[in-house]
Amino acid sequence: MSGPSAPPDGRGAGPHVDRVIEAGDALREALVVYRSAFDGAARALGRESEDAPVRHRGFEILRSDWERTVAAFREAVDRVGTAQKTLARGR
């Protein structure tokens, strides 16, 4: 698909472009799922630990894991976006 009828994100431009777009969509969905799991773990940790230092350390670990995961997902999404643009230029 090309020209004015092509979707702005490039879907339908070819199987390689579609796979890259689908990979980006999957990464975004995975990030949402991970965020939900992180929030649930943080809530559970807050309820289960009455010991403030233990609870604080647990939150620090969760936050650190979350920040590393977000950074990795963002990098992957950026790479997918770059691939999308590269493939779109090559149409």
Key traits:
0% strand, 91 residues, elongated, mainly alpha, single chain
What does this structure look like?
By secondary structure, the protein is mainly α. It is 79% helix and 0% strand. The longest helix is centred in the C-terminal third of the chain and has 38 residues. The relative contact order is 0.16. The model has no long low-confidence stretch (mean pLDDT 74).
Write the layout of secondary structure elements.
Blueprint: H1 15-48, H2 52-89
Helix pairs in contact: 1-2
Structural class: mainly alpha
Distance between the termini: 10 Å
- Please tally the helical runs, counting DSSP H or I stretches of 4 or more residues: 2
Number of separate strands? 0
Helix content: over 70%
Which outline best applies?
Answer: elongated
Rounded radius of gyration (Å):
19 Å
Q: What oligomeric state best describes the polypeptide chains here? A: single chain
Domain count, please report it: 1
Gist of the model:
By secondary structure, the protein is mainly alpha-helical. Helices cover 79% and strands 0% of the residues.
